[in-house]
Structures are given as C-alpha cells and as structure tokens.
Amino acid sequence: MCILIFSCLLSLLDTTQLGGLIGSLSTSGKSFFSVDWHDKILISIQVPRNRYWGLHPPPAPLENVIDDGLTAIQRAVFLKKAGVETAVDDDFHLNPPSRADLLESAIQNMIRYLQACRDNDLTPSLREGVDTLLMYLYRALNRVDDMERLASCENSCVVEELETLLNDSGHLRTLAFLYAGKGMSAKALGIWCILARNYSQSSYYKEQSEETESTTENEDSTTDLQVASRKVIFGRETAAIEASRILEESSDQELVLQHLGWIADINQTLAVQVLISEKRINQLSPDEVIAAIDLKKVEILQRYLQWLIEEQYSDDTRFHTTYALLLAKSALETYEMELTTQNSVAGALKNEMYVSEFGASSIFETPVRERFQIFLESSDLYDAEDVLDLIEESELWLEKLGHETLVLQILALKLEDCEAAE
Ligand SMILES: *[C@@H]1O[C@H](CO)[C@@H](O)[C@H](O)[C@H]1NC(C)=O
Ligand SMILES: *[C@@H]1O[C@H](CO)[C@@H](O)[C@H](O)[C@H]1NC(C)=O
Ligand SMILES: *[C@@H]1O[C@H](CO)[C@@H](O)[C@H](O)[C@H]1NC(C)=O
C-alpha cells in the first residue's frame, strides 16, 4: 500500500497537481479524519493517462487508497471465513487496522519520505512541491514544532498555497515565519503584532486549563498561575523579538515606525535595537524617528540621540540641545523621586520599589546624573543657555543640590566660551 501512496505522491509533485492533492486533503483541520470525507474529496487529474500510468497508478486521494486497501482486507477476511486460502495472516485479520490509524501512519510515512527527499538535488518546482506538501502533512498531524522549524529554516514552501490554511487553523506563528522567510515583512509583522496583543489580553484561565500536566506536578495553584503568566510573558517577548529581528534589517521606515510602539511597550531595549540597527541598507531619517518616538518613553529617545551623537557623530546642534535638555529633565526627576522616597514614612520599602522601577528596568547602565555631566563636558554643540534656564527653573536643584554645582560650573564655562567666541 505504501508503494501505491508514494507513487501517487510522486506523480503529484508537480505544482499544478499539488493543488489537487492538497484540495483532496484540505478539509478543515479536525474533519481530516471525519466521516463525511467522501463529499470533500475532489481531485482533478490534469495529466492525461498515458503509458506512464501503465507502470504507475494514476494519482488518487490518500483516503481512496486507504479505503481500497481496507476493502481488500475485508474481502480477504470474508474469503478466509469461507475457507479460501489467502495471504492475510491470522493476527492481521483478527485485529484489522482502523482507518484513522492507517491514514495517520500513511501520512507519517509520507512525511519521512518527503523529509528524505529534501536532502536530494531537486528542481525548484519539485522542491516547492515537497516543502509545501510536507508543511501540509505536518499540519494534518498538528506537528506544530515541525511546522515552525520548517517555516523558519530555508524552505521552498509556496506561501500562497498555505496562507489561508494556516491562518484558518490558527497556526499563525508558522505563517509569520513563512512570511518573514519570503521577505513578506509587513505581513509577518502584522501577525507578530496580533499575537503580542492577543497574549496580553488572553485570560490566564484558558492558559491554565491547558497546563494540566504541570498541575499534577505542582499542587500549589499559585505556581500554576505563575506558569500561565510566564507563558503569556514569554509569548509576548517572543513576538517582540521576532518582530524586531525583521525590523533591524528593514529600510522601510514607515514599517519600522508603525511597529515601534508595541515593541517598545514590551521591551524598550528591543525598540532601541531596531532604531540603531546598522544591518539595514538605508538609514532612517533621524527627524522622523524622533517625531515618532512616544514622548513618555524618554529613555528610548535619549538612547537614540546618544547613538546619533556618539556613534553616528552627528553635529546637528538641535540633537545636542534636545539630548542635553532631556538628560537635565531626567536628572531633576530622579532627584525629586529620591527626595519623596527619603521623606516617606515607609522609606525603606519604597526604596526597594525605586530600585526595581528605575534601576532594573532602565536601559542605561550609568545613572542619568553621570551621563548628564559627562555630556555637558564633552559636547560643545548644545545650547548652554537653554539648559541653564531649565535648571534655574527648578528650585530643587539650587536649594538642595549644592554638591551638584559642577553642572552649573560646566554650563557657566560653556556660556563664557560662547560669549568669548562672539
Ligand atoms: C485570517 O483569519 C482571520 C479570522 O480568523 C480573518 O479575519 C482574516 O481575514 C484571515 N486572513 C487571511 C489572509 O486569510
Ligand atoms: C487569542 O487568544 C484567545 C484566548 O487565549 C484564543 O482563543 C485565540 O485563538 C487567540 N487568537 C489568536 C489570533 O491567536
Ligand atoms: C529586553 O530584551 C533584551 C534583549 O533581548 C534582554 O536582554 C532583556 O532581558 C529584555 N528585558 C526585559 C525586561 O525583558
């Protein structure tokens, strides 16, 4: 029977025929093994019967092949009961295989065969047929890991043949990997965005019910919830990582800026990596990037400006001034934060929160104060007067922070230099 199936398959491995086989199999995921398969099997044999079919049987839907085989077995069993000698051994006819088992094992054998085919030297169209069919068969058995592995390695899958199928059966990650591999970045990003959003909305309860195995291991129900929430966070992170990987190589500025926001919501470091990536062919326009960054995500803006100035050697005075002003504001905010923390009754407790909120989550390693001072000294291109104005507005700075007068001294020197130069 296997030989029959393989020859069907081989004769179908021409992309025009492939559609036929896929059509014959592509009932919706669950009904693949369902009873009403007869109605759904439609196959068009476009190749005329010729001498080839004398040696090899013409293509037929897998289900037909299996049914023919089962009929043959039943006939043999019947004959045996009637006392006629047959080739069927006793074991086999006492336990005839079920149709579903046969179909599954046939598909598994086809998968093994196609996997071996991939190592051979095939023509491009044959390669397309093998990979597309392989993806189709993985899906039929819901082998998600194999689907994702195939989709994310170099492959010749025909995306158009698979996208509706994968979308409808909810194999969106596989589809996103396929899109990305074929350079269909916008579509891939669209999926990662949907997935990231969905992970953050999806209820933990559903995830929990899927975690039945871990329930038996961990009797503590909070652990279960932690597992579930970790899964959600992991899903979101993965979506953001995959999306940023695509965007780091993309010179499509509109696409980058369109997806920057949700990636930054998940992980600011990833958003920064996208913006300062040197893997793209054409750099992004700094003005449009700066305009697009959410003003609430100050650290991203700071890091981007720092990159423009320190790594791209931009001498645009607007960037220098904006950067200096942003650092000044952040430094002031940090002082205020420290002050309220110290004054608070539950100071110790809040101090811990302060560390986790403003220490660990910061994308910078050095404290803003230090960065501010270093920048003021190292650059001559910012508007010292603007920075001084900002600082002087803050009573806090002048009253409480006598020890930070270094900043004021630097600014005074810069201003003197300016006046001297004029
Ligand atoms: C994918 O499926 C969703 C609903 O599940 C549908 O709204 C959307 O149009 C589908 N997209 C494609 C490309 O088929
Ligand atoms: C979104 O999450 C819900 C609930 O967890 C799930 O049923 C649904 O299939 C998900 N949709 C997508 C597109 O992943
Ligand atoms: C954000 O992504 C970076 C780089 O992938 C990673 O090192 C970091 O741990 C992530 N941060 C968080 C808060 O998940």
Automatic annotation (TrEMBL):
Q: Which UniProt keywords apply?
A: Signal
| Signal peptide stretch | 1-18
Does the keyword Signal belong to this entry?
yes
Ranges for the Vacuolar sorting protein 39/Transforming growth factor beta receptor-associated domain?
130-209
InterPro entries linked to this entry: Vam6/VPS39/TRAP1, VPS39/TGF_beta_rcpt-assoc_1
**4Fe-4S as a keyword?**
no
Q: What is this protein called?
A: Vacuolar sorting protein 39
